[in-house]
């Protein structure tokens, strides 16, 4: 077929000249485009002529029944591969059946990579419906059909003129469509050059980017605020949307059902309404979400062929509305949810290496979500325990002013204080268990509740202390509690101490005296050994009770705060209100320990008025 080969060579030369003209005169594309369209018609005629000549070629005697068709097909393939413009053979459903090297070069994909894939996925979303109509028209009528669109693949975008004509392939039972692609805006790789995505530098850069993402994600999820507040998922999705995908969706399993938790949409597009539709879409209807949850492993779709994978919204399939070209979904933790990333046309598709790094991100995110849930559960328990060891408000005690300060320590501690009514007057108590953590706090809460409850029937705080001691010993917790309780009747206060620090009396003249205190902590022996004392508190005098955490606070040199420093501060507060007294003690201790608080601190002040 020398004439045909000559015509092909001439066509290749003219196409090369048109490319050169486009590069030399980018501002004047109209003449070049008109000429290119004319060459497109020439290419279509050459293909038709080649097909007709192959059909008419003589058969050898004795050849098998289909030998001629096989020879025709072989020759047609050679012509197809040598054709100087991008040509793609599609079946009636738009699936790629053949692709010539010129098309692979233009799109930047390996030879044969697109075979078996849906061609409409390369077409701009807004023109996919038009493409299908043109495809159907070419098949039904046999008349050529052409239109302008954009093709996107491997991060490259081309504006092209796409011409389609019906094609009958030897040996094929169904009719095909030959799609000839004429780039209007051409991106041409240098002859013989490696594709950028295959270069060693690009591979190293991609690997470094993935490693950088893991470091950023770990830093973000290990932040203390990510434990205290439910910010892990929103922060993670924002990071991924900023650096890794156009759309990021997090679905979290609650009560055995996946529920949409976070959606991050592209920032540079007016997609508010679409984002709301994606947020309201039910992940339980998403095939890919259910698949990842069922298998416990991620999936990657380099090219989205099934646009219903992510379910539907008001505008149809979610992926269609997004303009999705590539999708990746991984588990969050161990069945805690699914993280889905979507890239749109014009961006590099997700690869297996991306799936591997996102699997790690999903694992980290799952650990963070579980840690947050555990932390918040413990925090709620700690708050409940704290509420059980300190009253919300101090009641009014006739003849006295009262004020208190309570600072929790670095962990769930065991100090408590309380003020409550008793027969004929008021009672107060203060103390703490020798230990920390939830068990110590629960023992402290039991002692506080016991003192309050038994004071309803007993008129002597010492009898109440002894009964609480019996109950504590019977519990067998192994913890002991230092406590002091007092009943107030008029100007008289009767105190019972079980191993607690002595209360301080602040007189009007600034003199500070400590009461006896002492005794043996509760919970050590069945027979309690308490120290009992009766005081008269005149008008203007203040009785101050305080916890072990106050006097044992230390400064940077390891020195304890101690009773002497406390007495000095209290002496300067003579005649002041109880609220002023407790604030002065609090401020002095804060300055002494440079704001550090390890143990709980309690200060309770009663002043006669």
Descriptors:
22 strands, single chain, alpha+beta, Beta-Lactamase, rod-shaped, 3 domains, 609 residues, 17 helices, 5-stranded antiparallel beta sheet
CATH homolog superfamily of the largest domain: PPM-type phosphatase domain
Annotated CATH architecture of the largest domain: 4-Layer Sandwich
Class from secondary-structure proportions: alpha+beta
Number of helices: 17
Sheet having the most strands: 5 strands, antiparallel
Q: Output the radius of gyration.
A: 41 Å
Quick one: how many beta strands? Answer: 22
CATH topology of the largest domain: Phosphatase 2c, domain 1
Termini Cα gap: 121 Å
Give the % helix. 40-55%
Number of domains: 3
Q: How are the strands ordered across the major sheet?
A: 2-1-5-4-3
Q: Report strand %.
A: 15-25%
Apparent shape? rod-shaped
Low-confidence stretches: 60-65, 187-198
The CATH first-level class of the largest domain comes to Alpha Beta
Domain PAS: 72-142
Keywords: Hydrolase
GO molecular function, one term: phosphatase activity
Organism: Nonomuraea longispora
Write up this protein.
The strands form five sheets. The protein has a five-stranded antiparallel sheet with strand order 2-1-5-4-3, sandwiched between helices. The protein has a five-stranded antiparallel sheet with strand order 7-6-12-11-8, sandwiched between helices. The chain has a five-stranded antiparallel sheet with strand order 13-22-21-18-19. The protein has helices at residues 2-24, 30-56, 67-82, 101-107, 128-141, 200-221, 224-228, 232-243, 272-280, 287-295, 318-322, 352-389, 437-454, 461-475, 548-551, 562-572, 578-592, and strands at 87-90, 96-99, 145-153, 156-167, 176-183, 247-254, 257-264, 299-301, 312-313, 316-317, 324-332, 337-344, 400-407, 415-422, 425-433, 481-489, 492-498, 504-506, 512-514, 531-536, 542-546, 601-608. The termini are far apart. The protein has three domains: 76-183, PAS domain (Beta-Lactamase, 2-Layer Sandwich); 204-379, Beta-Lactamase; 388-608, PPM-type phosphatase domain (Phosphatase 2c, domain 1, 4-Layer Sandwich), CATH 3.60.40.10. By secondary structure, it is α+β, with helices and mostly antiparallel strands. It is rod-shaped. Helix 6 runs antiparallel to helix 8. 36% of the residues are buried. Residues 60-65 and 187-198 have low confidence and may be disordered. A hairpin with a 2-residue loop joins strand 9 and strand 10 (316-317). This is PAS domain S-box protein. Residues 72-142 form the PAS domain. It holds the Pfam family PAS_4. GO terms for molecular function: phosphatase activity. Keywords: Hydrolase.
């Amino acid at each position: 077929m020398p004439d045909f080969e000559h015509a092909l060579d001439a066509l290749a030369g003219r196409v090369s000249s048109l490319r050169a003209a486009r590069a030399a005169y980018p501002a004047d594309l109209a003449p070049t485009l008109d000429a290119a369209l004319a060459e497109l018609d020439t290419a279509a005629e050459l293909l038709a002529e080649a097909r007709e000549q192959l059909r008419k070629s003589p058969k050898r005697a004795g050849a098998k029944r289909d030998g001629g068709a096989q020879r025709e097909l072989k020759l047609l393939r050679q012509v197809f591969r040598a054709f100087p413009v991008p040509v793609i053979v599609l079946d009636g459903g738009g699936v790629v059946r053949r692709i010539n090297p010129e098309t692979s070069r233009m799109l930047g994909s390996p030879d044969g990579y697109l075979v078996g894939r849906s061609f409409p996925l390369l077409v701009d979303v807004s023109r996919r419906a038009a493409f299908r109509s043109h495809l159907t028209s070419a098949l039904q009528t046999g008349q050529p059909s052409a239109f302008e669109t954009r093709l996107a693949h491997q991060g490259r975008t081309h504006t092209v003129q796409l011409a389609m004509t019906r094609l009958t392939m030897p040996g094929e039972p169904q009719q095909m469509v030959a799609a000839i692609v004429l780039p209007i805006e051409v991106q041409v790789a240098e002859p013989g050059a490696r594709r950028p995505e295959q270069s060693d530098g690009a591979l190293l850069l991609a690997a470094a980017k993935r490693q950088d993402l893991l470091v950023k994600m770990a830093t973000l999820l290990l932040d203390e605020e990510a434990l205290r507040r439910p910010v892990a998922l929103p922060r993670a999705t924002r990071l991924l949307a900023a650096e890794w995908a156009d759309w990021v969706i997090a679905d979290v399993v609650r009560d055995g059902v996946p529920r949409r938790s976070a959606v991050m949409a592209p920032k540079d597009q007016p997609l508010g309404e679409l984002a709301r539709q994606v947020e309201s879409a039910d992940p339980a209807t998403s095939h890919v979400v259910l698949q990842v949850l069922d298998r416990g492993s991620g999936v990657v779709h380099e090219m989205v062929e099934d646009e219903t994978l992510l379910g539907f919204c008001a505008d149809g399939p979610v992926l269609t509305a997004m303009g999705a070209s590539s999708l990746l979904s991984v588990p969050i933790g161990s069945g805690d949810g699914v993280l889905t990333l979507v890239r749109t046309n014009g961006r590099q598709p997700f690869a297996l290496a991306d799936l591997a790094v996102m699997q790690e991100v999903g694992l980290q995110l799952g650990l963070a979500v579980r840690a947050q849930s555990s932390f918040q559960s413990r925090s709620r328990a700690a708050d409940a325990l704290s509420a059980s060891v300190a009253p919300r408000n101090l009641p009014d005690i006739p003849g006295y002013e009262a004020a208190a300060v309570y600072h929790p320590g670095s962990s769930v501690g065991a100090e408590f204080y309380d003020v409550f009514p008793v027969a004929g007057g008021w009672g107060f108590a203060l103390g703490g268990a020798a230990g920390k953590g939830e068990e110590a706090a629960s023992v402290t809460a039991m002692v506080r509740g016991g003192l309050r409850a038994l004071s309803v029937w007993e008129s002597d705080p010492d009898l109440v202390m002894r009964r609480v001691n019996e109950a504590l010993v019977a519990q067998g917790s192994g913890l002991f509690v230092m406590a002091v309780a007092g009943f107030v009747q008029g100007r008289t206060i009767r105190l019972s101490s079980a191993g607690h620090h002595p209360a301080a009396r602040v007189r009007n003249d600034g003199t500070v005296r400590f009461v006896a205190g002492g005794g043996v902590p509760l919970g050590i022996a069945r027979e309690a050994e308490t120290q009992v004392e009766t005081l008269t508190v005149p008008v203007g005098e203040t009785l101050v009770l305080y916890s072990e955490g106050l006097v044992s606070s230390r400064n940077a040199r390891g020195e304890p705060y101690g009773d002497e420093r406390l007495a000095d501060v209290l002496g300067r507060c003579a005649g002041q209100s109880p609220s002023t007294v407790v604030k002065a003690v609090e401020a002095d201790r804060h300055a002494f320990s440079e704001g550090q608080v390890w143990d709980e601190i309690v200060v309770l002040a009663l002043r006669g008025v």
